[in-house]
Write a structure and sequence with these properties.
- The chain is an alpha/beta fold and 472 residues long.
- 49% of the residues lie in helices and 10% in strands.
- It has 22 helices and 10 strands.
- The strands form 2 sheets. The chain has a 6-stranded parallel sheet with strand order 1-10-7-4-2-3, with helices on both faces.
- A hairpin with a 4-residue loop joins strand 5 and strand 6.
- Helix 2 crosses helix 12, helix 16 runs parallel beside helix 19 and helix 20 crosses helix 21.
- Keywords: 4Fe-4S, Electron transport, Iron, Iron-sulfur, Metal-binding, Repeat, Transport.
- It comes from Oceanisphaera sediminis.
- It holds the Pfam family LUD_dom.
């Protein structure tokens, strides 16, 4: 199942009409919100953690070009081979070149949303290279030929019955059961053999430390550690915005990430990779590669307001608290990054023309901004994107790819007419006079708007009418 952002409205309608999907999300979102609330039981501590995390991300982004160069230099000094990719096509070409240079055909992947962004699995399949997801949630959605519906828990849209049915269809020898421990054990047994046979290991990166040339990877299942140590070659991929200046910047961001994402004080595994296996070491890859991906991030970076989008540390808290996402799930958005963060980052990755429906898919209730651990002003950025989707580029303001693609000539005419009426006193008075005297022509029902409301009655136009009504 591969949806498209241009079809957001029909996809959302289909999701709303699926009671099983809505029940799955309702239970999962309630659980995640409760976990986060428990992790941030002290409001003062929460505020302090968010302030620190926001300050770190803003400082690092303000120095991004220099930090990327420093990261590259220190990674190379550590023995990591660094590659730059302007877009998804270039990133996939780099992967294919590295894998084929080692005669590889079997790739085992840790969880990486950036690899989903470039559609790595599909691109490698065209080269005859098999990529297996080793994160349990990613493994489940891969079996179902789906995409992740959440950036932290990819298979959150499925219940245990659906997972058991998938295993029964795709895993030889599986005996149908709804026991969760047995289901997890089944997945582990399949993956354990794949780890041993894999030629290449692939992972994402949560934080790339410029000071030391260290790649930090956060996880709970241990599969990330297996992907980065068992195969002879490890390829890490990350967006250019994930670089941080100092190693000391990582613990505050780590605390904000884990508490916001899963309500944990610390994850089960925290991996720090600073190079390939040394001559006197017994395990680890013989080669480590780092692919730094732009893919539209530079567009967000050059705009001071939109740059705040890049502060994101991919915790998913905005999704868990969004009244739209929690009712329709992630697939309705048709993008790799769904929910509130997807609505502000996808226009940079895919262009406003392809994603013009997404900035309007929000109630602007502000819940996403209130829980963001790095204080991204998501509602304000959504409003900015709504304007840019219908406006021509302006002098002094960086243009966005696909800008003005949602412009409506009818809407523009209405606003011009309204502006003319409100700027011209004589026309405004005439409009008011006509509106009050023709109010009887307003239909009693105005379609969907009045299913739970009644049409407003126009206010009295003159003091005489007000006094007459009061004297009755």
């Amino acid at each position: 199942m591969h949806n498209k952002p241009q079809l957001f409205h029909p996809q959302a309608e289909a999701a709303l009409a699926n009671p099983e999907l809505r029940a799955n999300f309702r239970g999962a979102m309630d659980y995640l919100r409760d976990k986060r609330q428990t992790a941030f039981a002290d409001p003062d501590e929460e505020s302090a953690i968010r302030d620190r995390a926001e300050a770190i991300r803003q400082r690092c982004l303000s120095k991004l070009p220099a930090l990327l160069e420093q990261l590259e230099a220190n990674c190379i000094a550590n023995g990591i081979r660094v590659h730059w990719a302007e877009n998804a096509e270039r990133a996939n070409a780099l992967f294919a070149d590295i894998i084929q240079s080692h005669g590889g055909t079997q790739v085992v992947k840790g969880k990486s949303m950036v690899s989903e962004e470039i559609e790595l699995n599909h691109a490698m399949a065209t080269e005859g290279i098999d990529c297996l997801e080793s994160d349990m949630g990613e493994y489940i959605v891969q079996l179902g030929d789906e995409t992740p519906s959440h950036i932290i828990m990819p298979a959150i849209h499925k219940n245990k019955q659906q997972v058991a049915d998938l295993f029964a269809e795709h895993v030889p020898g599986f005996k149908h059961t709804l026991d969760v421990d047995t289901l997890i054990r089944t997945g582990r047994n399949v993956l354990r053999e794949k780890f041993r046979r894999a030629d290449i290991g692939v992972s994402g990166v949560n934080f790339a430390v410029a000071e030391t040339g260290t790649l930090c990877l956060v996880e709970n299942e241990g599969n990330g550690r297996m992907c980065t140590t068992v195969p002879e070659v490890h390829i890490a991929i990350t967006g250019i915005e994930k670089v941080v200046e100092f190693l000391a910047d990582v613990p505050p961001l780590f605390s904000a990430l884990t508490r916001s994402a899963t309500g944990q004080s610390i994850t089960t595994y925290f991996n720090m990779i600073s190079g390939p296996r040394k001559h006197d070491e017994l395990d680890g890859p013989r080669e480590v590669h780092l692919v730094l991906l732009d893919n539209g991030r530079s567009q967000a970076f050059v705009d001071e307001e939109m740059r705040k989008t890049l502060q994101c540390i991919r915790c998913g808290a905005c999704m868990n608290h969004c009244p739209v996402y929690t009712r329709i799930g992630g697939h309705a958005y048709g993008t790799v990054y769904p929910g509130p963060i997807g609505k502000i980052i996808s226009p940079h990755l895919m262009g406003l023309e392809a994603t013009r429906e997404l900035p309007t898919a929000s109630s602007l209730c502000g819940a996403c901004g209130e829980v963001c651990p790095v204080r991204i002003p998501i509602p304000e950025l959504l409003q900015r994107l709504r304007r840019e989707a219908k406006q021509e580029p302006r002098p002094g303001v960086p243009a966005l790819r696909g800008q003005n693609s949602a412009k409506s000539n009818t809407e523009a005419f209405i606003w011009r007419s309204f502006g003319l009426l409100t700027r011209t006193p004589a026309l405004y008075r005439m409009m008011s006079w006509c509106a009050t005297r023709l109010r009887g022509l307003i239909p009693s029902k105005l379609g969907p708007w009045t299913r739970c409301r009644t049409a407003p009655r126009p206010a009295a136009n003159t003091l005489r009418e007000l006094m007459a009504k009061r004297n009755k």
